[in-house]
Amino acid sequence: MQIELPQDLLERIQQRALAAKGESEADVIRRALDLLDWQESETTAIQEGLDDLNKGDVMPYDQFAKEFMAKNKIIQDS
Question: What is the pTM of this model?
Answer without folding.
Answer: 0.70
